[in-house]
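Minutes, structural biology subgroup

Action item carried over from last meeting: produce the structure token record for S-adenosylmethionine:tRNA ribosyltransferase-isomerase (Christensenella massiliensis). EB confirmed the sequence was re-checked against the source entry. Recorded below for completeness.
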Amino acid sequence: MKTSDFDYDLPEELIAQTPIEPRDHSRLLVYDRETEAVIHRHFYDVTEYLREGDVLVLNETKVLPARLYGKKRGSGTDFEFLLLKRLALDTWEVIMRPGKKLKPGGVVDFGPELSAELLCKKEDGVCEVKFRYEGVFEELLDRYGNMPLPPYITKRLEQKERYQTVYAKEDGSAAAPTAGLHFTPELLKKIEEMGVAIVKILLHVGLGTFRPMKEETVEQHVMHSEYYSVSPQAAEIINAAKREGRRVIAVGTTSVRTLESAARGGLVQAESADTDIFIYPGYRFQIVDALITNFHLPKSTLIMLVSALMGREKALDVYRQAVEERYRFFSFGDAMLIL
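Output recorded by EB:
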């Protein structure tokens, strides 16, 4: 398959720059794979498509305010750090800009209580740094850090929490699992009261989710690795549903990748590991029956995952309809429910 087979035309003005208020008032495109019907609703209508016995799977990862701005000690040169992965208590992998103006041993100051020393440079522009700080690192990160919004969002985010799901719990992501941004506490309570089981799993979203595919053919692409975890309790609830023929509905592509990574013989294993699973057309889903997701970038691994569930031609046809209907696209955009 060619990467270009997953391209589509998107007017720039349809790329959402700000989130909708309230969260659940975004639009919802509903696609039924059996009837091929396309229905246009609002997200708060999602309850009409859920039923008692369903299992709704949420990713409870929390986005770190992982973008730091500082100055090189001595010269005052401006630097930007993007935190990728914690290696030890005070040691991180980061992307640093500008990449050539700091040598190992150089220090960047972010505030009076927070600085970082460059230890070494690795491949793909990744650097290893050691932070020096006074107090609690997470509190300093919350004070000095900025949300690592995707490059296609150019407007400043006024409220940090709008790039978090209302159920975010475990620090560790460089990007939000954006399909979950549409849920409110009230909507989740209503869903539970319907008899839908809400299950939390974990996948820390890496920056690789924003990296464009450079390969001409899909099969050549190597996915970035991300940490995931499925608890014994979550696995038990999901597996009971699979055995009884009840639906497992994933919220977001991160939940899909977690469930399918932990799948063995049609059931989910309770485990914590890293996954580089790449889901594209031809993939046979073991766990996921339905998906709530946003609209994804052209030629991205995420539109390929959606195409694996819907079929490539149908996915692109539905995306064309979404463009015609002026849906809002990407992280702060509208949602799609694939039944």
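Discussion: The radius of gyration is 21 Å.
Next step: EB to file the record with the rest of the batch.
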